[in-house]
Specification:
alpha+beta; Aminopeptidase; 7 strands; 36% helix
């Protein structure tokens, strides 16, 4: 009878690939666009009408991402050459926070928010604002954001895009 090797006795667990949180670069533009638009497609479908989904994609188009890269700080989580989460701080506004659907509910959004808030504090800001989509309301409340008032945008087809304004005092 042949003996089993020591390695064969160990349970096989996947080795997690390195995770990096870094500032986004302009060379990340296409990957950022893909991450954001894929997340909108998956996370907003069934919550918003098609016209609102297209509005969100247009709002987070290539030119807007470049503006964020040049005028603020844009962070990304990267694993194995794939962007899995992003968020930006421009002035006192946090925007463009998206986590790939297959990485949601794993703390990436909260971690990006903490770093963005810390960066805002380092800039001397005492509070930050953001717009909150319907699927993200619970998340932002859980991390201390105060929902101020409901807002909406009328879509050309008569549908509505509902969201909230929110803010947080930076501790």
């Amino acid at each position: 009878m042949r003996k089993k090797s020591f390695a064969a006795l160990l349970p096989m667990r996947p080795i997690p690939s390195p995770l990096v949180l870094r500032r986004a670069r302009e060379s990340d533009l296409e990957a950022l666009l893909l991450l954001i638009h894929d997340t909108i497609d998956v996370s907003y479908r069934g919550v918003y009408p098609e016209s609102a989904i297209e509005f969100f994609k247009n709002h987070h188009r290539r030119e807007r991402i470049v503006e964020r890269l040049r005028g603020g700080v844009v962070l990304v989580f990267e694993r194995t050459n794939r962007l899995i989460a992003t968020g930006a701080l421009v002035g006192n506004e946090i925007l463009g926070v998206f986590v790939a659907p297959d990485h949601q509910r794993r703390d990436f959004g909260r971690r990006i928010m903490l770093v963005l808030e810390s960066h805002a504090k380092g800039l001397g800001l005492r509070s930050v604002t953001l717009s909150v989509s319907l699927p993200a309301e619970r998340f932002y409340r859980a991390i201390g954001y105060e929902i101020l008032k409901p807002r909406h945008i009328e879509m050309p087809d008569g549908e509505r895009l509902d969201y909230w304004e929110a803010w947080k005092i930076i501790p």
